[in-house]
Amino acid sequence: MSKKCIGCGIELQCNDPYEDGYVNPEMFENTIMCRRCFRLKHYGEYKVTNKSNSFYKGIIKEIFRMDELVVHIVDIFNMGNMNDIYSKIYSKAILVISKIDILPKSINEDKLIEYFKKKYPKYVDIIAISSDKNYHMDELLMLMMKHKNSNEVYILGNTNAGKSTFINKMIKNYTDRNTFIVTSCMPSTTLNVISIKINNDLTLLDTPGIVYSGDLITKLPEEVVKHINIKHEINPRIYQVKEKEALVLNDIGRIHILNDSNISIYISNNIDIDKANFDNNLKYKDLERTKIKVLEGQDLVIEGLCFIKVSNDTMFEVYMPEGVDIHTRDRLI
Ligand SMILES: Nc1nc2c(ncn2[C@@H]2O[C@H](COP(=O)(O)OP(=O)(O)OP(=O)(O)O)[C@@H](O)[C@H]2O)c(=O)[nH]1
Ligand SMILES: [Mg+2]
Question: What pTM was computed for the model?
């Protein structure tokens, strides 16, 4: 009988060390974790998987065909393909805004929920949680018990949305189990469906996250991804900027501002930002330029990195690695 890795859900095998699910043949009998997960969990060493996004999408497509309750987990710093996932949900679904602890405490949570309710009326309920801070776990458990069609509830969303971290917190809070799913800030940590029984009436199914191609973290080296990952409450950085001033984000890119404005950046506290003047004639190697106008009442979004609020209509030129999704949206908070 085949064995599955407790860390990522992949089938364990001892034949090909370059394939996912590999374990040393001598350890095969007694292990419950693949080498990739073992190294990620114990040494923080990340290995790119050879699974493709279409493999993950295939799994999610199957889930959408079922009639089970879906919990769609969204990290507001990476929701570029949210409309795409939303349009494919036909069964009952709860929207969960994860990692609420990283947003400033001053934000109005009710307003945030209202924003999503208006935009995405199909969800039967919407809730903001923090798995790290154990915030709204009982409430979400109750919502799942209320809306579920059977004992099985599927947890899905983008890679890094916080699906496995959420399930681990459910395991910790409501079960006696002492094995946990592997989590990390790198893309594609979970590789296949993992079934976790919470109680006799509820089994949660973790799923591999969809990798959004416009997400900045898919374009950066591992050490930079780890550095820019948002772990703690953001202190928004406020700049009074004059025409032709630039904000330089080391190792990542540049944001040029073409008219006077006051801007607030919601970004990892780890990222150093230097103010500089810019020269229109300079080219920035390996960076793609996006010229974009942000109206008062809108945010500028650089997917996977940050969002920016403006005091008045502001013209930007954003230089980021090629393919990063840069767009505007109605102001979120
Ligand atoms: N601050 C904070 N970080 C969180 C929270 N939940 C998850 N994270 C972090 O987000 C990153 C991704 O978490 P995972 O649980 O591995 O995400 P996932 O959705 O399972 O990702 P895949 O398995 O790749 O699909 C990790 O660095 C977690 O520590 C939270 O509530 N607060
Ligand atoms: Mg996961």
Answer: 0.96
